[in-house]
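Human: We require from you a protein record containing the residue sequence and its fold in token form, and nothing else.

Assistant:
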Amino acid sequence: MLNIYRNMSLYFLLLVLISPLRLKAQTKDYIAIIPPFHIRQNTTGTESPLELRNLQFVIFAYENAIVVYSESDFINQSENVIEQELGLPSTGHNVTGNDPDGRISNGIRSIQLWVQGERVNPQLIKEGDEEWYTIQAKLTPHESRKVKALFWAETSLANINDLPGLDTTVITNGRRIFLIDLAHAAVWKSTIQSIDITVVLKDGIFPSWETFSAGPPSYNLKDSSLTWSMKYIKPSTTDNVLVKYESFDNSDSTKNTIPKLSSFIVKQAYGQLQYFVSQLDKL
């Protein structure tokens, strides 16, 4: 009987010691995640027969949000017709799967898509805890398609209630984070010939701040723009771009609530970003 009590005591002691560790290991961060096009139903990790030749991201980083433009050049190098769903994961997407220390997307917003210059409306699909914006693509042998995307995401780590009309809910100052998830672009066939990323810091954000960091450290810095260029790469998680900064003067900002921020981005920032991209193309 004494041994039974002793064993029970040891068992409960182990529970007490292990529980905090387990809780800590299960912590996941909800952050702004910039996705490339994924294959939503790919659960095996096998490559698609479709190639992603070139990938470009141009990002305006504001105090409370990032505004994103992306271009993806797909090509069918096979002798068969390929029908492929192209998906952008949004709210609830878990970047690292079952990894307990992974990061989860807080969602992309106001998505606009173009295929070969023609505006297309994505389908919103809810799959478990995740939301996806998807389109269908059909490529004949050796046909290529350029797919452009425009969207934005909130960078604050605070839990913001964004119900319509709540203009009085001010986004608090504090840490801001966004991640460019390049690793999932490896699902497409072969290596990617080029990945080009430009991050333009807005709202007086300075890369020299002690609270600012960006990685991988292989970027070029000019004024308030950071650029990464990668060639012939099959990206992994070590290639993901992570940017951290802080907001200090948010209470006086004209974009310090979700409705105001959304209105500014859709009515002004989208056009400004597209014009900026058009000027980059002329260089």
User: Anything to note?
Assistant: The longest strand covers residues 48-61. The CA atoms of residues 34 and 42 lie 19 Å apart. The helical segments are 2-25, 258-281. The longest helix spans residues 2-25.
